[in-house]
Amino acid sequence: MKWTVYNILFLLAYPFLLPGFLLRMLRRGGYAARFGDRFALYPEEILRKLGRLDALSDSHAPSASQFVWIHAVSVGEVQVAGQLMREWRKAEPSVRFCFSTTSSTGWKMAEREITPSDVLIYNPLDFPTFVRAALQTVRPRAMVLVESEIWPNFIRRAAKEKVPVFLINARVSDRSAPRYRAAKCFFKDIFSIFTRIFAQSALDRDRLVAAGAPEGIVDVTGSFKFDVAHRAIEKESEIDAWIDASLAPAKRGKIILGGSIWPGEDEALLKIYRAIFDAHKGEEDAPTLIIAPRHFEKADAVEENIRRARFQCVRRSRKDAPPTGEGDARVLLADTTGELMALYALADIVFVGKSLCAHGSQNMIEPCLCGKPTVVGPFTENFRPVMSDLLAADALVQVASEKELAEKIASLYNDPAECEALGARAAKAVEARCGVVQRCVAAILEELK
Prior knowledge:
Strand order of the largest sheet: 3-2-1-4-5-6-7
Number of helices: 19
Mean pLDDT: 89
Largest sheet: 7 strands, parallel
Number of strands: 14
Low-confidence stretches: 55-64
CATH class of the largest domain: Alpha Beta
Shape: globular
Distance between the termini: 36 Å
Oligomer: single chain
Helix content: 40-55%
CATH superfamily of the largest domain: 3-Deoxy-D-manno-octulosonic-acid transferase, N-terminal domain
Structural class: alpha/beta
Strand content: 5-15%
């Protein structure tokens, strides 16, 4: 009865969600090209790879039983999934993955993680007809969901198809925990389907068990995200040259970087930078500010804020010559994807976004891995276990307000010794917590024997 109610509510809600999908098509592009995937209507190329077009497939096409279905949504989750796939390939070189996501940004990142033998699709809508068709088309040998991707019909249908289901890097946010508990009668049926659940922390394990997950299938492994971050050495050289060219003929000073910045945080950083820049104006190596928005489609608004703050703007995406003539300092706008890690490696002080003017935070592990003094705001719910570990190691700084952020960045700017010590503790803390992915892959493969 409860699943009938869920499906009726889904049907009633979807027409209201559809305008949002259409808006994303217009804003982000590329979203409409494979819209049929939502209804398990796949193009011929995908069906051929999956071995579903026998007449068109050659005799060497991989059988569907080789595919492991991995589902991830956000950029961070896709990176987690990518790390899992790379580790899995080391242990089982013949494995193929069917990678699904729900967003165009997730799709673009996933394109970098898959190999030519893999399949990339959009996840089907969570309605019985579509998930049944999708699973019968892919016929996966196993299904791996990332973090908090709990789609009831999708998971229930996998169980009916006798597909082992795993949840990796599992977390339950502060906001979701009471909802899971309140709906335990609903979620316990879902969580009991999983073969194994790998939780980020003991708190996440307790919250999953409180929501109905069998205690025996939930393991605390730590966060996969400690294993995801890797230096982008080749990209660093390219970005390094871009920074020099963008500032010429001025000499580059210390770089303050705002990474994965959300609306409102760029304005806060511009105010902070104005104060630091004015204090060091006229120096041969005056400070430099780089802003990397979380969503590239927000770049126009960020550029407007930069100009309103009386700075010249140099955008990475345009690859045009830096501005000339009268004007104040230049602020660099890194409005591209896939280059943030290189930017972190070249920065002197880092602020990680979605933590001051928005809730949840972006990944603070990456700048810490690079040994950079890292500052975050008060809202870091999405990285609760990571923050617990890093704060315990005194590996980063968390501030409570824009005022505190300004004070801390200024303090770090004027104290090279503090910067060096904080960065060293950050790199050491990340290094000590690696190895989670390897252990989880080994556990999954043991279950699939």
